[in-house]
Amino acid sequence: MIDTRTAPYAALLLRVSLGILFLAHAGMKFFVFTPAGTAKFFESLGLPGPLAYATMLVETLAGIALILGVYARIAALVTIPVLLGAIFTVHLQNGFFFTNANGGWEYPAFWAVALAVQALLGDGAYALKPSARS
User: Model's pTM, two decimal places?
Assistant: First the structure.
């Protein structure tokens, strides 16, 4: 049974926390690894370097959209492939636990599921521009 009185606030809490995580993740790529360093890392994985810049842009824009509640369902759906890409290109071979060397796939998989939950749940309370059918 869904408690319709508190569900919008649950969606808000999930939405804002997911947005903050994306901004932190993009910030790490930008401020710690630098955009050029992130591009080189992508290239070391056999991915095109410019994909790193696109990934940072998607993480930043989706993070802001989630925090503000601007088409949050769409932002959640758009970012799931980013995390699936991280699982299959970086983390899968490291095992399940994120504490393994180079990080396992546990954390990005949970994050992707949380984004799917957000997309299904809707924008929640205080969304500035709710997605359709929110």
Answer: 0.92
